[in-house]
Amino acid sequence: MSGRSLTSSVLSLPNAAEVAAAREHIRPFALRTPLLRLNVDLPGAKLFLKLENLQPWGSFKIRAAVNVLRTMEIGRAHV
Q1: I need a labelling partner for 26 at 20 to 30 A (CA). Which of 7, 32, 33, 70 fits?
Q2: How far is residue 58's CA from residue 20's CA, in Å, rounded to a whole number?
Q3: In this structure, are residues 31 and 53 in contact, taking their beta carbons and an 8 Å threshold?
Q4: Which helix (H) or strand (E) holds 7?
Q5: Mapping DSSP to helix (H, G, I), strand (E, B) and coil, where does residue 12 land?
Q6: Angle, to 10 degrees, between the axis of helix 16-26 and the axis of helix 61-71?
């Protein structure tokens, strides 16, 4: 997470290296789910659905949670 504070009020987009690292962190825990295009009758509209409900636990939130836990320093995992 390159020194990003989890309590920071300013959010920024991750860079390519951070995305790649997060992908490796969650790989053992999250299944790859399909991305489907939804046909809509709106000119120029491209709408896609990411079917995270197909995860064994039915939620996308596990991706962020696992990534945060895997990048925390030992001893910082306080509740």
Answers
A1: 7
A2: 23
A3: no
A4: none
A5: coil
A6: 100
In the prediction, which pLDDT does 3 show? 55
Other C-beta atoms closer than 10 Å to the C-beta of 67 total 20
For residue 47, what are its two tokens?
């709408």
User: What percent of the chain shows pLDDT beyond 70?
Assistant: 77
- Bridge partner residues of 15 (DSSP): none
Q: How many CB atoms lie within 10 A of CB 58?
A: 9
Whole-number Cα distances in Å, 19 to 14, 32, 46, 56, 78: 6, 15, 24, 23, 25
**Residue 66: pLDDT above 70?**
yes
pTM of the predicted structure, to 2 decimals? 0.55
